[in-house]
Specification:
The protein is built from eleven helices and 18 strands. The protein is an alpha+beta fold. Strand 6 and strand 7 form a beta hairpin. Helix 6 crosses helix 9.
């Protein structure tokens, strides 16, 4: 469960920007849009949040920040070799920022324990890394390290509450790898839940969402009826889905394709299967008619591709980040997808949905609490500012959020100028 995240000096984010799913003030929609995250009921979180803002305001960069953080956690101790570059992109429009590390921090809950983990890094090295845990409500600093440029070494702090082969993990941690990742690779059971949250619980998708493969794989097993329920609830008029697999046929490639390209494709497809997805609808004579998946509309293809990951996330309590959820989808379908997270029956394990969007028809107090709405815009230095609707204290249940946003009350709108006449 995600509590909060912060990012600084990464892409369009210059100063520290913080996004939170902690429940704010207000008692609206407590049973649907919020949940108690601990047995002591001392932390209440939101099931979803929507982020609005003009194009190029930095909305997508929030997702990219988490993607980068996840990539470094999961891959730095395994995929990178000594001297390899880390995927850091600092704020480039400021001469000082270009030379400074990017910084990331996430606070989350696993098994009722709150963790606060973060690191700062340039492309060359990790400059700082820290982990605090709250197993009994009070902070325990499990580890920390800071790069000392004068001595060209790290200053380490390995807390007494961290158990295991700490000295071995410290010696084995490269400059371009995380201590967290290295320790888990070397069998730290205590740090495994933190690593697994990034690897398994945190799920992210760009504008295109997912391909149909995962949803199709569910249609081949016992979860097919859940996929069909999803499609029927979305009113797609699909009566069945048939999935067949067949080996990749090299002869299907164009005959004039260059040989190196052909060899690369054939090598990449070795031992892989090709999916053939058919959607079935009933004709007026009651007989099933098969349609190629590629002949379906972009919206239908996207919604089918969403079905599997959506069901998987709701079932397992994942944290799901989606960029531009509205893309190719009707506003009612966007609301349908969001409400699946707000319904305790369809979301029994408190999965969370965070998405960017331009769809303003759902920007109302019948769908969201006021603390679930966020905005992005750029300041005069072209740096992204991230802020919540609650900064404006809209009237509970009365203010028309969509009209107020589109009128410019909350900012985060494109400033469109007149186009100069040609000639």
């Amino acid at each position: 469960m995600l509590v909060e995240m912060s990012v600084a000096n990464f892409r369009s984010f210059r100063e520290v920007q913080t996004f939170t799913l902690a429940k704010g003030k207000g008692d609206e929609m407590l049973a649907t849009n919020t949940f108690d995250a601990t047995a002591a009921n001392d932390i209440s979180l939101l099931r979803s949040a929507a982020i609005y803002g003009p194009n190029a305001s930095g909305k997508s960069n929030l997702l990219l920040a988490l993607q980068t953080m996840k990539q470094v956690v999961v891959d730095s101790a395994v995929s990178l070799q000594r001297g390899d570059k880390l995927p850091m992109t600092p704020f480039r429009l400021n001469s000082q920022s270009r030379q400074q590390p990017s910084e990331f921090e996430v606070t989350f809950l696993v098994g009722g324990v709150r963790y606060q983990y973060g690191f700062a890094a340039t492309a060359e090295r990790i400059h700082e890394e820290w982990l605090l845990a709250y197993p009994k409500g009070r902070a325990q600093r499990w580890f920390g390290r800071v790069w000392n440029p004068e001595d060209q070494r790290y200053d380490w702090e390995l807390g007494n509450n961290l158990v295991g082969e700490k000295q071995l993990w410290q010696k084995s941690t490269r400059d371009n790898a995380l201590f967290l990742s290295t320790a888990v690779q070397l069998n730290s059971e205590q740090l495994q839940p933190v690593f697994d949250w990034f690897k398994n619980t945190l799920r992210l998708a760009n504008v295109g969402g997912w391909g149909p493969t995962f949803s199709a794989s569910l249609c081949e097993g016992t979860d097919k009826e859940r996929i069909m329920d999803f499609l029927r609830a979305a009113d797609l008029h699909i009566d069945d889905v048939l999935v067949e697999t067949h080996p990749f046929d090299p002869d299907a490639l164009p005959s004039d394709m260059p040989e190196p390209m052909r060899d690369a494709i054939v090598g990449g497809m070795k031992d892989k299967k090709i999916l053939d997805i058919k959607t079935i609808r009933m004709g007026d004579d009651g007989k099933p008619i098969a349609f190629d998946f590629e002949d379906e509309s972009d919206g239908t293809q996207k919604l089918f591709s969403f079905a599997g990951p959506w069901i998987d996330s709701l079932t397992n309590g994942f944290v799901l980040f989606i960029d531009e959820l509205h893309d190719n989808l009707h506003p009612r379908l966007v609301q349908f997808l969001v409400q699946l997270f707000h319904n305790p029956e369809t979301n029994p394990n408190n999965a969370q949905l965070i998405f960017t969007t331009h769809e303003t028809s759902i920007l109302n107090q019948e769908v969201f609490r006021r603390d679930q709405i966020w905005f992005c815009e750029k300041d005069k230095s072209q740096a992204t500012a991230l802020y919540p609707l609650t900064d404006f204290s809209p009237r509970k249940g009365r203010e028309n959020l969509e009209a107020a946003y589109l009128s410019g009350r909350y900012g985060a709108l494109p400033f469109v100028r007149s186009l100069k006449q040609a000639g």
